[in-house]
Amino acid sequence: MATRHKLIIGDCTDMGEIADESIHLMITSPPYFNAPFDYKDLYKDYEHYLEIIRKFAEETYRVLQKGRIAVLNIDDMLVDGEKYPITADTTRIFLKAGFRYRDRIVWKKPDGYLRISRRSGVLLQNPYPMYYYPDNLLESIIIFQKGKFNYRSISQNIREASKISKKEFLDKKWYMTLWEMNNVMPGSPLEKNIAAFPDELPYRIIKLFSYKGETVLDPFVGSGTTMKVARNLKRNSIGIEINKSLIPIIKKKLGFDAQGTFLNHNDSFVIVYREKKKYESFR
Ligand SMILES: C[S@@+](CC[C@H](N)C(=O)[O-])C[C@H]1O[C@@H](n2cnc3c(N)ncnc32)[C@H](O)[C@@H]1O
Fold first, then answer.
1. CATH code of the domain covering residue 30
2. 182 C-alpha vs ligand 1 centroid, how far in Å?
3. 70, β-bridge pairs
């Protein structure tokens, strides 16, 4: 089964290139509100950040097919000593955009990921009440649905081709709201300075909420993890990314070799440069 992949270089608060109800699954991790360096000028303040989330939620609702799923990997954020309730605010925004709130999964990173930070270690210097500031090992994966899914709309062939392994479901404990998954190591060369999620996250979501041959959208595609996993799982993908300097990384993740050849000629890849009104096509 040949698959098609499109990378749009632009701002996902407008998804003008994507037709209404043409997407089967949206999965993304929006930028951190306190994201360093690059994004400094992107958000004036928290309200401005939420305004971007609101526009992206409305566009996601428009492009998703009826009954389909939108998934966000997100979490509350500590900035200059203030904790921002991003998960709750984003949930409200998605409900307001028309989605049903379907589930919340907690992603737990390995314990060894954290060493006691200066913040939590304050208690060791001051072992008294009121000095408690725990370190965060968790992220949320919030799941929304656009109305109800019509299971009969999928042919028997496609259902069978997209079957989920019961062994994987049981062995990896997909049935729980706690997912224990490794994170991408901070020193990983391809994802340097990008808060990339591990392949395992879109892998589970794509398997659980889409069928082979369907189209998966990631509006904050970063290093292209979602597109890569979608391709491996025989789904089409659309990624949107505001930072064009990530193009070489996305191409590499998606399967380009060092000579710039897109491996496997059955699949196709297009880059749409919105600003320049041009596109590049690879096969
Ligand atoms: C947390 S990273 C996504 C990482 C991705 N999940 C991965 O595995 O590599 C968020 C990305 O969103 C991009 N971004 C920020 N604002 C954007 C916007 N308005 N439209 C499109 N992309 C945006 C950033 O440049 C960044 O690459």
1. 3.40.50.150
2. 20
3. 26, 144
Ligand 1 atom closest to 223 (CA) = 9
Atom of ligand 1 nearest to the CA of 195: 1
Strands laid side by side in the 236-241 sheet: 178-180, 100-108, 138-145, 64-74, 23-28, 215-218, 236-241, 4-9, 268-273, 278-282
Kindly state if the Cβ of 65 falls inside 6 Å of ligand 1: no
Out of 76-85, 196-205, 206-215, 230-239, least confident range: 76-85
**Confidence class for position 79, pLDDT limits 50, 70, 90:** confident
What range defines the domain where residue 93 resides?
Answer: 4-282
The two tokens of residue 203 are 């892998």
pLDDT in tens, 91-127: 999 999 999 999 999 999 998 777 888 889 999 999 9
49 CB within 6 A, ligand 1 = no
Judge if pTM exceeds 0.90: yes
For a substitution probing ligand 1, which of 71, 238, 241 has the most ligand atoms within 8 Å of its CB?
241
